[in-house]
DNA sequence: GCGACAG
DNA sequence: ATCTTGTCGC
């Protein structure tokens, strides 16, 4: 399923009738997961066609207005809402409960993605396989444009090859749904039989299926997730657990987990070895940024 | 009121 | 990852 979540979302916003409002949370629920609330705000901020897509009709769950991307900011939002008959007092919408629109016609796309994951997740293997080389991957973003770098390295972090790709993403960043933003892009451009080091998590994920697992299963190659911050699991010294089961490692302030086609133990040994020389994701990040800046120079 | 929230 | 249209739980 390759959904353009931006388009799907703007179509949802168009359903809010004049004279009514909805909330960021209700739109997130219509997408299929409340965790997308902030992404709703982000997509509204990027609304390419204000008024046509009536983003001014979206307010916060407590009845206050929330932001508006306009030189006059929230004042413009108030003006638009009042012109549609909405009463606002002290920055709060009156009769909030009577005029809140919740009846979206939707197929809950994020729920669909979660269902699809259940099938893919069965294909995760934590058995070691052979691979050609090691490739570290990172993406830099400017709005909806991604600049992706694939940096082939040896075990001493010596750079052997660099490949860069530029694309427009069709999915916002939503916590725990990072696969559908960056993973789709990695899958689109990567071709080979290397071990991939990916900026995010593998099996160390609330649904056991993070970005590195998504890529590892779909490409059927070994992948390791390397995250800079904590998403899921309980840290005990250098191990990260979910219940009794180990799901990852905490090494040098990084959150490491196998994606697929590699064992927990091999992930540890390889990452330990690489980290003695440096952080491969940081390396890929430098090249992704450099690529982004050089492309922007070309304008 | 402050921190979480993979990037 | 950027540079700010959220929500929940402590």
Helix content: 25-40%
The largest sheet is: 9 strands, mixed
H-E order: HEHHEHEEHHEEEHEHEEEEEHH
Report the CATH superfamily of the largest domain: archaeoglobus fulgidus dsm 4304 superfamily
Which spans have pLDDT < 50 for at least 5 consecutive residues?
none
Beta-strand proportion? 15-25%
> What would you say the CATH architecture of the largest domain is?
2-Layer Sandwich
CATH class of the largest domain: Alpha Beta
Tell me the span between the first and last alpha carbons.
Answer: 33 Å
Q: Estimate the global geometry from the Cα principal axes.
A: elongated
Average pLDDT figure: 97
Report the CATH topology name of the largest domain.
archaeoglobus fulgidus dsm 4304 fold
Description:
- This protein is an alpha+beta fold.
- The protein folds into 2 domains: 5-107, Winged helix-like DNA-binding domain superfamily/Winged helix DNA-binding domain (Arc Repressor Mutant, subunit A); 120-298, archaeoglobus fulgidus dsm 4304 superfamily (archaeoglobus fulgidus dsm 4304 fold, 2-Layer Sandwich).
- Helix content is 33%, strand content 22%.
- The protein has 10 helices and 13 strands.
- The strands form 3 sheets. It has a 9-stranded mixed sheet, sandwiched between helices. Strands 1-2 form a two-stranded parallel sheet. Strands 3-4 form a two-stranded antiparallel ribbon.
- A hairpin with a 5-residue loop joins strand 6 (145-153) and strand 7.
- Helix 2 packs across helix 3 and helix 7 packs parallel to helix 8 (211-219).
- The longest helix has 18 residues, at 280-297.
- The protein is elongated.
- The two termini are 33 Å apart.
- The model has no long low-confidence stretch (mean pLDDT 97).
- The structure holds a DNA duplex (7 and 10 nucleotides).
């Amino acid at each position: 399923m390759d959904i353009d979540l931006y388009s799907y979302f703007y179509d949802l916003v168009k359903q809010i009738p004049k004279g009514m409002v909805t909330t960021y949370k209700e739109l997130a629920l219509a997408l299929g997961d409340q965790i997308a609330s902030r992404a709703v705000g982000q997509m509204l901020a990027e609304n390419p066609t204000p008024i046509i897509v009536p983003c001014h009709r979206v307010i916060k769950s407590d009845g206050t207005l929330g932001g508006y991307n306009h030189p006059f900011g929230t004042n413009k939002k108030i003006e638009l809402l009042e012109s549609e008959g909405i009463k606002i007092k002290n920055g709060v919408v009156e009769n909030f409960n009577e005029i809140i629109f919740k009846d979206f016609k939707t197929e809950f796309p994020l729920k669909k993605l979660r269902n699809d994951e259940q099938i893919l997740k069965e294909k995760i293997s934590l058995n070691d396989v052979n691979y050609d080389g090691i490739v570290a991957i990172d993406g830099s973003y400017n709005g909806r444009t991604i600049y992706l770098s694939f940096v082939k390295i040896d075990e001493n972090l010596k750079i052997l090859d660099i490949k860069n790709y530029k694309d427009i993403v069709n999915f916002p960043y939503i916590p725990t749904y990072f696969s559908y933003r960056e993973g789709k892009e990695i899958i689109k451009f990567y071709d080979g039989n290397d071990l991939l080091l990916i900026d995010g998590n593998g099996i160390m994920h609330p649904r056991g299926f993070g970005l590195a697992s998504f890529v590892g299963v779909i490409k059927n190659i070994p992948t390791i997730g390397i995250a800079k911050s904590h998403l899921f699991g309980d840290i005990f010294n250098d191990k990260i657990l979910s219940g009794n089961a180990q799901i990852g490692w905490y090494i040098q302030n990084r959150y490491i987990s196998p994606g697929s086609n590699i064992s927990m133990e091999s992930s540890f040994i390889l990452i330990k070895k690489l980290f003695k020389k440096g952080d491969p994701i940081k390396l890929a990040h430098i090249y992704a940024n450099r690529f982004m800046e050089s492309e922007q120079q070309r304008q």
